[in-house]
Amino acid sequence: MAQVNAAREILRRLHDVMAGKAAAQVKLNQVVKLVAAELGSEVASIYLLRDGVLELFATQGLAQSAVHVTRLSMGQGLVGNIAARREPLALAEAKAHPDFAYRPETGEDDFHSFCGVPILRREAAIGVLAVQHREPRNYAEVEIEALQTVGMVLSELIHGAGLVDDAQAARMRAANSGPTRLNGLKLVDGLARGVAVFHQPRVVVEHTVADDVDAERVRLVDAFARMRTQIDDMMGRSEFVAGTDHHEILETYKMFAYDEGWARRINEAIETGLTAEAAVERVQSRNRLRMRSIDDPYLKERLTDLDDLANRLLRTLSGQLGTAAQLGITGDAILIARNLGPAELLEYDKRHLKGVVLEEGSLTAHVIIVARAMGVPVLGRVDQLFANVNDGDELIVDAGNNALLIRPTAATIKSYQAMRALKARQAEQWAKVRDLPAISKDGRHIALYMNAGLLDDAAAIPLAGADGIGLFRTEFQFLVSATLPRRERQQSLYRGVLEAAGDKPVVFRTVDIGGDKAVPYIDGDEEDENPAMGWRALRLALGRSGLMKVQARALLEAAAGRTLNVMFPMVSEPWEFAEARGLVEQQRERLARTGHAVPTEIQYGAMIEVPALIEQLDLLLPMTDFVSIGTNDLTQFLFAADRANPRLADRYDWLSPAILRVIRRVVCAGAEHDVPVTVCGEMGGRPLEALALIALGVERLSITPAGIGPIKAMIRSATLEPLSQAMQEWLAKPGVNIRAELSSAAKRQGLSF
What we know:
By secondary structure, the protein is an alpha/beta fold. It is 47% helix and 16% strand. It has three domains: 173 residues, Beta-Lactamase (2-Layer Sandwich); 230 residues, Glucose Oxidase, domain 1 (3-Layer(bba) Sandwich), CATH 3.50.30.10; 135 residues, Phosphoenolpyruvate-binding domains (TIM Barrel), CATH 3.20.20.60. The strands form three sheets. An eight-stranded mixed sheet has the order 7-14-13-9-10-11-12-8. Strands 15-16-17-18-19-20-21-22 form an eight-stranded parallel beta barrel, surrounded by five helices. Helix 27 links the parallel strand 21 and strand 22. Helix 7 packs across helix 10 and helix 8 packs across helix 9. The radius of gyration is 29 Å and the shape is elongated.
């Protein structure tokens, strides 16, 4: 309560300063004195962004002669760091920070600790508020929040005084009027063109200090009720009915909307004297800060859902009409957003939505699962997106090349149109061979399966021309659920996939969660420093045998009267495979004893992803019916190179002799034991890499549906025997550039990629 009263007192005094008739400079001088007094700091300073430079505008404790003299560029020094990153920074010893920039004119030699927060307007940093103490000290969260609250109020004052106004921002935007290219991360592959449409007009909190705290609480309760009604109505729509993938995603989203803990934190912020909008903004800022410090992709995605809900709540409070989806979009549109929740994307008209560009975004996000199902390309992690794109700008999203082209030139548009025309011609060619087998000119047959993870994917088998599903990732159902999926729900999904596949085979990979795919209802190993190699996949499933027993029974019941193909991920030792197989067999025997129908046959497979398993193939293969090489994990483990780290991109070459030799070893061992070997992962979906795999003796690939057409066309136009002979020679010689040699050989055959 004491903290609440102290916060109210700061807001009250700030309100008095703002209500005064003094000049803006005088008010800023009063604010730094107030902040220094309330936080017991020797220094309090305000820096404002003027003509692209952060200028010391007011200070209590530093040399007054430095005011309007000391300037820092964005990103320069601690202050520039805060403005550039739009994040608070608290240090017990400021000079030890690598970004510390000494400015002798300020007289700050005697001060050790430092705490600063950005002053934000329309999500842009327009200044920095900082305090310093003479003695080294750690800053409490309540002190950082107090500074953030002052920063919110200062934003009003600064805007109202015209010190940093919207006209200046407009001039800065006008400067960004030429063609620009921004790089990002491919989240969903594709190529699209359209005009920029901002997902939501950012709610600018104009009034931060509450006149009546009780009235603000009532406004918040009403806004929560209206927001929850909107979500409930959305879930009642036909495309979101129970049993669909989208329904499960929205259930998690709804869980946050009804989270009393979130509502309580906002009410606590109102108690300090903030308006309802300012309270939502302050809690939202705290969550965003947490998001940036969390490595766990699942937890980060849950906080992204909460951020999305906070934006929805702010729009409800402010009376804004809503997102671009609710206002309606016409024509070809590229959606621009900082981040996006699954519910938000599902509201858009798929006829007009051509692409999505996110300043943040992650491969594990719920919205990516939805976008992939909708066939909408998504580019994420686009830095400075909002600073470079204006509403209505023409855009080209080239997700495959990790690029966003802003205001493209006529030549660029012509190139895009040529690329689209080429893709259309390629699609026509692929359509001609869609229903034909993948048989090379010299008579070698390659089975092409597709990877899947949603019920909708199974329906794409005939459209893609696939021979079946070589990898069905069962974990998606677990990742989008707030609780462990019940056996009935799992069974319903698996049966639906089998029915959609018809007479085509489906290989179900048992759940691969844990590590970097954490779920809230299963405790993982919080001390995992390298989650990709931690307590996950089969290790977790065997450790939590109840989870695996439920999934095994659901698979067995779903495949009753059929052949069940089940595969275990991340097998490290043959005994793990034997134990997992034994567990499924126990469930089959139990079902049979109790009179339940069971599969007519069960084929058991292992994912080869862990290099240690390759040393024990002679022990593993006699126990298996098939194996699949997971090239994504296997390659990063072999090279000790995280595939998500751009600095290691050149260490992650699928045509390196190391990975090709390992794959050849597995293929040869499989042939020796008469065990089919499939290659799963991105490697098999790239024509040149697929050609290398086939040259090694691989006869089964499981790839993305979009990759099947190009790979099938390539196989049907290739003569493979000369390439197989050449591959053996290349692998036997040191220093051979296999990528270059294979590319030359492919060109000689007239193969184009």
